[in-house]
Amino acid sequence: MRSVSTIRSASSRKIFRNSQFFGIKTISSVVQFSSHDSHSTSDEQISETGKSEDIGDQYLELNSSRVLEFLKKLKKEPIYAVSFFAQLREQRFRPDLRTYVAMLWIFCYCGMDRKLRSVLREVITLKREGLGFDVWDVFDALVEGVNAVGLKLFSRVLDAMIKAFASESMFGEATKFLYEIKKRGFGISIFSLNYLMNRLIECGDADRAILIYNHLEKLGLTPNVYTYGIVVKAFCRKRNFEEALTVFSKLGKAPNICTFTILLEGLCSQGLSVSGYNILLARRRDNLTIDACAYAVVIRGFVKEKKLKEAEHLLLDMNEDGPMPDECCYGAIIQGYCQAGDYIEALDLHSKMTSRNIKTNCKIASFILQCLCQLGKFKEVKSQFGHFQKSGIYLDKVVYNIVIDALCKLGKVDMAMTKLNEMKGKGIVPDVVTYTTLINGCILNGKLFEAADLLKNMEQNELKPDLITCDVLAGAFSRNGGLDGALKVLNFMGSQGIEPSYITFNVIIKKLFAIGKVRESERFFDCLEIKDERNYSAMIDGYCESNNTEKACDLFVWLLGLGIAVNRSSRLKLLDTLVMEGEHDKVVMMSDALLYSGDGPSQKLFTKVISALCSFGKMKKAHLVFDSLIPYGFNRDVIIYTIMLNGYCKVNHLKEASALFNDMKERGIAPDITAYTVLLDGSSKSNIVWQKMSGSKGERISTSSLLADMSKLGLEGDVASYTALIDSHCKTGNLEEAITLFNEMIDLHLAPNIKTYTALLNGYSKSRHVKKDVTINGLTFKRKVRNDKTTYTLHHQGILTAKIEQFRT
């Protein structure tokens, strides 16, 4: 027996098929049919209309009145009304204002809120230019019919209009509409206001969301639990946590878990995970519901703040007292450890997770494999991938791309190709990243023909190479074919409609420099129609790497005159090259330009320039640069202070070093063992006595004062500091103290180096009482005196391992 719905559907098709496009007779038939049995409808049922026959077979002249009359007859048959409306558009009939309003009332009457909102969004976006009327005309027309349909149905239309404005991010219009509703004495539901406020927050306008919340009472609305949750989120976005907590407190003792989680998300997203954790504990003490999702929010917050141990502690809390943690909780911490490069902790936590029968997933697998790959542990990637495969979890394209990359970097291109086929066998479609990784692997391993085959394979699979693929090809062809090879790639890119970027040009420039083709690199650079400042930087890098420092300097100075910026990394490279080649004068002359041009200085650039100037003994200039650190917003850290101290000690300006050391301590920067070693070494090489760090003028300081300071700070000496002290005692004739320090080194298991032995033997040489071979730490040094020169030699296992000479004084 056929169902009622089947008979109804069949009857409908017959009626529409036989129509002369909605003659009066047909309308009567449909009306009679519709009146037999009205059935419920919803938004979901609209999809069925696509299966129905065309409503009309041929086009006859229509007018708005006839269409409107027909729509009214279909008030309880919205599926057919929607189909009719669609057919009108296909027949190029332009619905007027009354037609749209009729459709809106039908959707409203049948509770089809999504369809109602969809049509209103259409009216909003098409505007008067597209329809001949706008949404405000629709509103006025709807108001005229309110008495016929009642306020309850009308409020549904108003809610839909608010949501339609919000969906289109037309918040000004939505606000205007709210005041218009209030002025006319109509009401809307709190749900549409919740939707509007949520959209405002999503679009970064938390202030307006809060303003609407503050006017709810004037609009005659009472906030519900979701309203409070939205407003809590708004205040959190504004970092106004005091107000967020005030709103939260209005929910009383038991806010629902959704609002509670929103508060946690707000706090944790703003770096206040500790506060979120404390609120979570308070809820737990009150024996209120906390789900794994709430815990996961705080865990993710701790991870974002790099407080991984706190996150793991919370995980232990869950295992003991809370809901069982899921893979999301574990995965967040594993991701944190991976981002920190701590793969050992990541793997350990992963092992604990699986031991608790919590199944891992491909996302967690990708965190671990990516971490190992970034650390260069390609063998471990291969091994771990095998473990994941054996566990039976689904491994997606991302995971396969990582392992293919690792195999290529191990030189196992054939195995990587096997993984490609494995992907295809499992129904995983390789993407451009997969092919680009393999092409790069083939090129790096000299398999150029295989790379070309992969490129063809991409085309066969309708995958278009992207810019990164082309950059890889540009590097390969430049390295193997010089400028001609590079031009072939650029032609290929043109044929594919891919515009080369500055990266493409830089890849070619760098590869040409790398193979010694300096002239070809210059020719290519000269041919570029538009030269980016980053291309100029690449040329400077290339000159530096190819030992053409003079050209690099000339280009830098020329660009400086034109006001063209050179990036920091290139300025650093140029500085390093000049220092390495001993170009003292150029470093001093160009130091300001290297520091302050282009995108400005960085902490690293400041450190490098100061270090270079100090190594050349240009302390006045170094101190000027040192003084400019703070005005530029950078820190004078212990490293920079130590570099300056070392510079002053090297040029024997111990008074300035002492003053700088005092300044360092007064600013609350604790000297480390390296700083003290520099001072000890400086004092050992000079007869100038240091001023006391605490001290007033005229007071002096000995090495014992430095040692006392080190002791207070809990700093233990290293080989360098002990050697400096031993050297100091030996030079002042205090050989016994030097030997005591040497023995202390041995007791601390600090291995003396050649400098330590040299310092001690120099002390022995100056002692008039030593007239024989010297045994130190079980090693015997043979003493010879020739032509007023004392020589100590150490033979170990028949090999001369140390020879120390000292003129007798």
UniProtKB/TrEMBL annotation:
Per the UniProt record, which residue ranges are transmembrane? none
Pfam families membership: PPR, PPR_2, PPR_3
Instruction: Keyword check for Membrane, yes or no.
Output: no
Sorted keywords for this record are:
Repeat
Q: Which sections of the protein are PPR repeats?
A: 189-223, 224-254, 291-325, 326-360, 396-430, 431-465, 466-500, 532-566, 637-671, 718-752
Protein name in UniProt: OLC1v1002065C1
